[in-house]
Design goal:
This protein is of the alpha/beta class. The chain is about 45% helix and about 20% strand. It folds into 2 domains: about 25-180, Rossmann fold, CATH 3.40.50.10860; about 190-335, Rossmann fold (3-Layer(aba) Sandwich). About 50% of the residues are buried. The chain binds nicotinamide-adenine-dinucleotide.
């Protein structure tokens, strides 16, 4: 990972580019560059051995001009305030691009979840949510899953929030298990959205999806589901990876079998039909048609962008590419679908979940997937039109659309008092 430039530097540089092109009022530009509210917390938890440990966590709420805050919660050893702030900012633009009525937020706890038991993770989640209670809620800020948090974590959040309210509040969090009001299709929504946008990109390039080769970095919720959908569509999944490294077979891997192997052994490595074990860095440079980074930030940098062979990059992860790398990829004519568009299927179905909870309805998987596809195609189209009009690349076009809509909302609301 490139340590020279952090995610917040990337997010701010992207905002600067959009602000200049949109000729934003300098005051609005500064407004957009800072979160509205940041809450830092020291979370005490009792370890299973009886010791007390204090973990640092935060919730960053960027801008809520278009609706309540919305954003995932990440448990990871690298979590810091700058990273969470960048992720909150990207959430704001993302919600505006798919035109759903939310503002951006993000939460994180600096910890290594692999070293915590389920009971410790539950105590951590409940205590963390307890410390955020006055700042979150169905019409204030609605959390969701992100790295190393999942449907179970969201169930604990719903329960903790509901216990303090005194009644059940499923609409306080999304990404819940279906039995607790979770939406059909939420688990794979981010990946489904990524694949829809890749399909749209391939149409524009005149490329057939069937038989093309994809490499997926990260084999968690988003990476595994992207690999699965790709495989089901007839795309050859030639490589996948997780935090320990990757596996490669130019003839194709069966992601279902890799998933079973990872479930048993904890890693994709050691999978029997893989030809080679590779590093995460090597995966990015493989000979493939489609590359899906689905792990962490700052993976494609000026150091490796020149070596990327894919024709399409679908950014499932948030912030995987630095601005310097963007320039190199553009010169190489690689079609890059930016994170704030490509991975917006997750928040879109989270929005569906929230709407279903507020109205006490439950939609079918078919309804969810049809609505998701419609929104993703419209967003892809809106960004493409901006790209053509402004004669720019897709990331810049997506930023122009997202930042522009949020700036307009702020100006229309006016400044109180
Ligand atoms: P996850 O915790 O389910 O999976 C993360 C994966 O990344 C795991 O396979 C892990 O082994 C791998 N990983 C961790 N460190 C790595 C490293 N140094 N190199 C390579 N791989 C590494 O998380 P997720 O929900 O799948 O999220 C993945 C990415 O997608 C993140 O950037 C997240 O912000 C983004 N995203 C997620 C959602 C969502 O709905 N979950 C929505 C939008 C964007």
């Amino acid at each position: 990972m490139n340590k020279e430039i952090g995610p917040l530097d990337v997010a701010l540089e992207q905002l600067d580019i959009a602000a200049e092109m949109l000729e934003l009022d300098p005051g609005i530009h500064v407004f957009l560059s800072r979160p509205k509210r940041t809450l830092s917390v020291s979370i005490p938890i009792r370890r299973d051995n009886g010791n007390i440990c204090i973990l640092w966590g935060c919730r960053v709420q960027h801008i809520d001009a278009r609706g309540p805050f919305k954003g995932g919660i990440r448990y990871h050893p690298n979590v810091d305030l700058a990273e969470v702030t960048a992720l909150a900012m990207w959430m704001t633009w993302k919600c505006a691009i798919v035109d759903i009525p939310y503002g951006g937020a993000k939460g994180g706890v600096c910890c290594n979840p692999k070293e915590l038991s389920q009971a410790e993770l539950e105590r951590l989640t409940r205590r963390y949510i307890n410390m955020l209670l006055d700042f979150i809620g169905p019409h204030r800020d609605v959390p969701a899953p992100d790295i190393y948090t999942n449907a179970q974590t969201m169930a604990w959040i719903m329960d903790t929030y509901s216990r303090f309210k005194g009644y059940s509040v499923p609409e306080c969090v999304t990404g819940k298990p279906i039995i607790l009001g979770g939406s059909e299709g939420r688990v794979e929504a981010t990946s489904r959205g990524v694949m829809i946008s890749i399909k749209e990109a391939s149409k524009r390039l005149g490329m057939k999806m069937k038989g093309t080769k994809v490499a997926v970095q990260g084999f968690g919720n988003v990476g595994w589901n992207a690999a699965k959908i790709a495989f089901d569509t007839g795309i050859k999944v030639i490589a996948v990876s997780d935090s320990r490294g990757g596996i490669h077979n130019p003839q194709g891997l069966n992601p279902y079998k890799v998933f079973e192997h990872k479930k048993k052994t904890g890693s994709v490595q050691g999978f029997k039909t893989a030809r080679n074990e590779i590093t995460n860095a090597e995966l990015l440079e493989l000979d493939c048609d489609i590359l899906i980074p689905a792990a962490l930030e700052n993976q494609i940098t000026k150091l490796n962008a020149g070596k990327i062979k894919a024709k399409i990059i679908g950014e499932a992860a948030n912030g995987p590419t630095t601005p310097q790398a963007d320039k190199i990829l553009r010169e190489k004519d690689i079609f890059l679908i930016p994170d704030i568009l490509a991975n917006s299927g997750g928040v879109t179905v989270s929005y569906f979940e929230w709407v279903q909870n507020l109205t006490r309805e439950h939609w079918t998987l078919k309804q969810v997937n049809e609505k998701l596809e419609k929104i993703m195609i419209k967003a892809f189209d809106d960004v493409s039109k901006t790209m053509e009009k402004e004669k720019t690349d897709m990331r810049t076009a997506a930023l122009l659309l997202g930042v522009g809509r949020v700036a307009e909302a702020i100006e229309t609301l006016g400044l109180w008092p």
